[in-house]
Specification:
Number of domains: 1
Number of strands: 0
Radius of gyration: 26 Å
Distance between the termini: 53 Å
Structural class: mainly alpha
Helix content: over 70%
Order of helices and strands: HHHHHHHHHHHHHHHHHHH
Oligomer: single chain
Length: about 475
């Protein structure tokens, strides 16, 4: 009994850290807008301090087999980063330290999830998913407020106090909600999409509020997500959510064809009319995206999307061959293209002040660490994607498999094109999704073990009952004789 209480106490510690990291990411931007810049810098690094604290606790934690595997791969990749970090340290020592956190620190959040929610605590994971999804309420409210305010209002200014009109879409202001930038808001919406599926498929088990948890909350969250996705005015949120839903659905249908198809039809019968109803009642929420989706005089919307996607993978070909051979192999230094690098490194500041910036993840990876970084960084990500896919395949229970399918979709999309080494929020959302798949796998394994124990007990009880019945019959025969 004492041992169980100790395990609960330890898991609650990890749980509190996870909740705090998520809250910090969501409200960091709006917090930095209302405080002096010196305090804003502390807020900017607070998530990193929470991750370092998590790393300290995890170092002595008892890990499951899957978590040990992830930690081992993480350690191997960290060793492979050493030559690049030494090279960056020669260029600028503070930049090398900054790069460690950008590329390697946030893996800790992936380890934090299965530790916060052990195999016998699925209800706590459901509550975390509801908490994560419920953050749509304040973020959508702030986004709607921004949409109704002039561009000069402090809510619509950047953290530095400048106008965000340069991020406008066809003359319509794109909103950042409680985040620092519009892009961070979009990536949050992509991440939260998967956790709403948890609320849909596996609501909190409370009989008193069954209608609330099974019907009202999922419907309300879906409406908030729809508004949030389109009010951003960006393609990242719209295409990201669409990709997550389509890939997650296809994975579910592949594994459980009839059940998933029926569920998908029912959910789409709600989502599609809801979208058109909101669009009809509140067209201003869709104005920025509608204007942007019409394209420009120079390029259609489809051509622009195609150009952006190709650019994500191929932009580096424009300048890669013009560099020195050594730079082609080991790059120009890690962490330079990340937000905040110019605040800690004069070397990064000099480069960023020229206006040069690699927007996509692959160009950034190649520019910062050359072909060497491309191999180890994308090799790491692809290994993690493959590992999550194997875990998903092994999950037997329908609801748990469906939930993890949508989380896997997010892991695949962001693992391939997400700027994980460049944007800490994207990295943390990605690793939380990875950790959630690890946790769900442990829930499924525990469920299978419990079913086996129940069946075993049932067999034993039946055998015992048959044995007693046979003894009684023998006694009856003996008495008869």
């Amino acid at each position: 009994m004492k041992n169980n209480n100790n395990i609960d106490h330890i898991s609650r510690k990890y749980e509190r850290l996870l909740y705090a990291i998520v809250a910090m990411l969501v409200f960091e931007g709006i917090a930095r807008k209302v405080v002096p810049s010196s305090i804003g810098l502390l807020i900017f690094f607070l998530k990193d301090l929470l991750c370092l604290l998590s790393l300290y606790y995890i170092n002595n934690a008892k890990l499951s087999i899957t978590t040990v595997w992830l930690k081992t791969i993480w350690a191997i990749v960290a060793v492979a980063f050493i030559p690049l970090l030494i090279y960056t340290a020669f260029l600028d020592l503070p930049l090398s330290v900054f790069a460690v956190k950008q590329y390697l620190l946030y893996v800790v959040t992936g380890l934090l999830v299965p530790l916060a929610f052990p195999s016998d605590q699925i209800e706590k994971f459901k509550r975390f998913s509801l908490y994560f999804s419920s953050l749509l309420l304040p973020t959508t409210f702030v986004a709607i407020l921004q949409n109704s305010l002039p561009s000069t209002h402090w809510l619509n200014l950047t953290i530095g106090g400048t106008s965000m009109e340069e991020f406008s879409a066809a003359g319509f202001l794109r909103v950042s909600s409680t985040f620092s930038f519009t892009g961070q808001y979009s990536w949050f919406l992509n991440a939260v999409c998967s956790f709403i599926v948890v609320v849909f498929f596996s609501p909190i088990n409370e009989r008193k509020n069954l209608v609330l948890y099974k019907t009202f909350i999922p419907v309300a969250l879906s409406i908030l997500l729809t508004i949030g996705v389109f009010i951003t005015g960006g393609r990242t949120a719209v295409l990201g959510n669409a990709g997550c839903i389509v890939i997650g659905f296809l994975l579910s249908v592949w594994k459980f064809p009839s059940l998933s198809a029926r569920k998908g039809i029912l959910i789409s019968m709600f989502i599609i009319p809801t979208f058109w109803l909101i669009h009809y009642l509140k067209p201003e929420f869709f104005a920025a995206y509608d204007a942007r989706s019409t394209g420009t005089e120079e390029m259609s919307n489809e051509a622009e999307i195609q150009s952006r996607i190709l650019g994500t993978f191929l932009d580096w070909t424009d300048w890669y061959g013009e560099q020195d051979f050594s730079v082609m192999i080991i790059g120009n230094g890690l962490g330079i293209m990340s937000n905040g690098s110019d605040r800690v490194s004069s070397y990064a500041q000099d480069i960023r002040s020229t206006g040069f910036w690699t927007e996509g993840d692959i160009p950034t990876t190649i520019w910062e660490g050359g072909i060497y970084l491309l191999i180890i960084w994308y090799g790491f990500r692809l290994i993690v994607i493959g590992f999550c896919f194997r875990l998903w395949l092994s999950i037997k229970e329908y609801k748990l498999s469906s939930i993890s399918a949508f989380l896997l979709a997010n892991v695949v999309i962001n693992g391939i094109i997400g700027t994980i080494g460049m944007q800490p929020p994207i990295a943390i959302w990605w690793w939380i999704s990875v950790g959630s798949i690890l946790a769900i796998h442990s829930f499924d394994k525990k469920s299978s073990e419990n079913k086996f124990v129940k069946v075993d007990k049932c067999i034993y009880t039946n055998r015992h009952s048959i044995g007693n019945s046979q003894i009684n019959k023998n006694h009856e025969k003996s008495d008869f004789r």
